Amino acid sequence: MDFISTFQSGGFSMYILLICFIMVLVIAGERYKYYKSVKVNNEDFIEQLKIILKQKNWKYAMELCKSDESLISAVAETGIESLINKKANISAAIEARSAVVIANLKRNLNFLDTMVMIAPIIGLLGTVLNIMASLNEKVEQTSGIGVIIAGALSSTAFGLFIAASSIVILSYFNYRLEKMTNEIGEISNMLNSQTLKNDEK
């Protein structure tokens, strides 16, 4: 009951913030489900691919990529296919595939970044509007003013809570994104080095 009273005392901005918080949770759940479906620890795959590329066994390399079924292997498969078909601009093919993979990993994360900035502002705006509204009313006791201000500040507190939650969630996904981006970069360098060796011949 106290929670409901505190929530209602925050005014209309609390409902806006509640919608924002629900959206943060929905996006966090969707991203977690997506990232969970994607292989994160690709060290074994990368090490195996290094050995195979040194042996220039392109057929086995393709089989390894297809059997792995990860985002990293999809990038590698694009590069190896370009090597097999002796395409002129292999780097461009790898970069194009990498861009699609990274874009999928980043999807909706910008909303969390926006919530970090906008949630405290909405909360603060709600507090200011509530205090302004209370000043237009006659409050006979000093304690009454304290209750009104405490209720008004609840919107600021909720806004800060949403921002803090968004930061934690965003940091987690950015960590995983950076890890996968580095692995994609490593794969790209490996395949580009093979291209240079072929060009030298």
Automatic annotation (TrEMBL):
**What is one GO cellular-component annotation here?**
plasma membrane
Q: Which UniProt keywords apply?
A: Cell membrane, Membrane, Protein transport, Transmembrane, Transmembrane helix, Transport
Q: Organism, per UniProt? A: Selenobaculum gibii
Top-level taxon in the UniProt lineage: Bacteria
- The protein here is known as MotA/TolQ/ExbB proton channel family protein
Q: Where is the MotA/TolQ/ExbB proton channel domain?
A: 71-184
Q: Which GO terms describe its biological process?
A: protein import
The family note in this entry says:
Belongs to the exbB/tolQ family.
**Where does the record say this protein resides?**
Cell membrane; Membrane
PANTHER family associated with the record: BIOPOLYMER TRANSPORT PROTEIN EXBB, PROTEIN TOLQ
How is this protein situated with respect to the membrane? Multi-pass membrane protein
Locate the transmembrane regions by residue number: 12-29, 115-133, 145-173
